[in-house]
């Protein structure tokens, strides 16, 4: 009886190790359509589309469960790109989900911040740093401008500031074109 249990446990361990190795060795890629849709979305992770982030929204679009016009941060340009990719008709941005705004970042008035950490908890991309009862600050290159940190702040010390177009921020407005060298 004990021998049979040990043999079964040994088989289970070997099978588990084999499957684990196969999962690492032969990484299964996601749905290519979902990946293409997700690449068009702005990666703000704001949830304005009605989904908890850009990837779940991309999956819903690919499965026909969501319209292509639900992403205010992606704007009209994003809707056009999605329509082109999917061969669908262009629809204006759904006002039910919000309006298109210029790209912006959160800025914390550090003199007013009380260190409550509510903004840190609300930030979907960990762009806010600080400690309890200490002032917080925003790591601007990480901030997606989702505005999710503004509402929970009890002292209204967070403002959304539009980004000026610079060499570093132009890519949010214009698509990046991949250049290939011709031999």
From TrEMBL:
InterPro entries: 4Fe-4S_dom (IPR007202), 4Fe4S_Fe-S-bd (IPR017896), 4Fe4S_Fe_S_CS (IPR017900), Elect_transpt_cplx_RnfB/RsxB (IPR010207), RnfB/RsxB_Proteobac (IPR016463), RnfB_subfamily (IPR050294). It is an enzyme of class 7 (translocase). Its main location: membrane. [4Fe-4S] cluster 1 binds at residues 46, 49, 54, 71. The keyword Transferase does not apply. Keywords: 4Fe-4S, Cell inner membrane, Cell membrane, Electron transport, Iron, Iron-sulfur, Membrane, Metal-binding, Repeat, Translocase, Transport. Residues 104-133, 135-163 form the 4Fe-4S ferredoxin-type domain. PROSITE patterns: 4FE4S, 4FE4S_FER_1, 4FE4S_FER_2. [4Fe-4S] cluster 2 binds at residues 113, 116, 119, 153. This is Ion-translocating oxidoreductase complex subunit B. The lineage of its organism: Bacteria, Pseudomonadati, Pseudomonadota, Betaproteobacteria, Rhodocyclales. The gene is rnfB.
């Amino acid at each position: 009886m004990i021998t049979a249990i040990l043999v079964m446990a040994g088989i289970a361990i070997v099978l588990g190790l084999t499957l684990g190795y196969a999962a690492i060795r032969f990484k299964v890629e996601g749905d290519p359509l979902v990946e293409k849709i997700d690449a068009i979305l702005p990666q703000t992770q704001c949830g304005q589309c009605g989904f908890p982030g850009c990837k779940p929204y991309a999956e819903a679009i690919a499965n026909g469960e969501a319209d292509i016009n639900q992403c205010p941060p992606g704007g009209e340009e994003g809707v056009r790109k999605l329509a082109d990719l999917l061969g669908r008709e262009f629809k204006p941005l759904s006002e039910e989900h919000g309006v298109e705004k210029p790209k912006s970042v959160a800025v914390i008035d550090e003199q007013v911040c009380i260190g409550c950490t509510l903004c840190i908890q609300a930030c979907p991309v960990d762009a806010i740093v600080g400690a309890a009862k200490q002032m917080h600050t925003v790591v601007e290159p990480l901030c997606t401008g989702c505005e999710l940190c503004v509402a929970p702040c009890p002292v209204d010390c967070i403002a959304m500031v539009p980004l000026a177009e610079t060499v570093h921020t132009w890519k949010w407005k214009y698509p990046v074109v991949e250049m290939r060298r011709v031999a």
